[in-house]
Amino acid sequence: MRQNKKLGQCFLKDKNIVKKAINAANINKNDIVLEIGLGKGILTKELAKRCKKVIVIELDKKLEIFWDEIIKEYHNIEIIWNDALKVNLKELGFNKVVANLPYQISSPVTFKLLDCDFEVAVLMYQYEFAKRMGAPSGTKEYGRLSVSVQYRAVVDYVCKVSPSAFSPKPKVDSAIVKLTKKNEPIHNIDNWEFFDGFNRALFQHRNKNTKKALIHSAHEINMDRDKLKELLNSNEIMEFNDLLGKKVYMLSLKEIGVLCNNLYKIINKSK
Ligand code: SAM
């Protein structure tokens, strides 16, 4: 079977990496595990041996030849032949996720997962993407991805994975990351839609000061530029002038939440 690059079909062949991923998720017989991307089933079979049930989502029906072999031996695996981005993940009832993700959907699938209830997700990403996810404020990798993910989960780096662990070899290094859903948020966000727009606006200009960044990308929070400028120069937001004067990439996660909620309040009051 010819592997489809467009579907990110770089299959794992290194069993040590499979073990590392499964150990990081601390899989046990009570777990219902979601996997995205069956491939030839190297991860699926190992998960099935250790957990109560695996639910695997796979888009490519050409992989059915491998599936047919797998189900002869394992009876605790359910497969959903569909695009993971189109499946209602909230209905599936899993408590853990382990997956060697197709890289072209890393970002949307991660945010879709972070909207679900789960304990831990152990996921393979491109190395650079993984670094951006876990980056702390003040570093050059810190950005919208870091803020959006770290608001919803604790990011732990498990290990770097070299191209030789896959067949065919991808062109770049990969990394396994463990995401643990946060019970206590860093800061309660009043409106998540506004928060996401606010972050987009900020990190389009990560090296600018925060006030300038927001004014430049006012459209991201559905504001007219002049109106936002007026609000950000008003007495209403004066107590946050220190934060507004900081460079975007120096803002901590908490500072972003505080500023976001207060701006949201002031904008709504002015309407
Ligand atoms: N788990 C296998 C392994 O570790 O060898 C396969 C991993 S491979 C990187 C990614 C898998 O995801 C491929 O089997 C590919 O066909 C599948 N895939 C790609 N896009 C998908 C999508 N949108 N929804 C579900 N599966 C997808």
CATH class of the largest domain: Alpha Beta
Mean model confidence by pLDDT: 96
- The DSSP helix count reads 11
Order of helices and strands: EHEHEHEEHEHHEEEHHHHH
Low-confidence stretches: none
Which overall shape is indicated by the principal axes computed on the Cα atoms? elongated
Number of domains: 2
Distance between the termini: 60 Å
Spatial sequence of strands, sheet with the most strands: 4-3-2-5-6-9-7
In short:
This protein is α/β, with parallel strands linked by helices and 271 residues long. The chain folds into two domains: 5-181, Vaccinia Virus protein VP39 (Rossmann fold, 3-Layer(aba) Sandwich), CATH 3.40.50.150; 192-270, rRNA adenine dimethylase, C-terminal domain (Helicase, Ruva Protein, domain 3), CATH 1.10.8.100.
Give the secondary structure arrangement, pairings included:
Blueprint: E1 11-12, H1 15-24, E2 32-36, H2 42-50, E3 53-58, H3 64-73, E4 77-81, E5 96-100, H4 106-114, E6 120-126, H5 127-134, H6 144-152, E7 153-161, E8 166-167, E9 174-181, H7 192-203, H8 210-216, H9 225-232, H10 241-244, H11 253-270
Parallel strand pairs: 2-3, 2-5, 3-4, 5-6
Antiparallel strand pairs: 1-8, 6-9, 7-9
Helix pairs in contact: 1-2, 7-8, 7-11, 8-9
Bound molecules: S-adenosylmethionine.
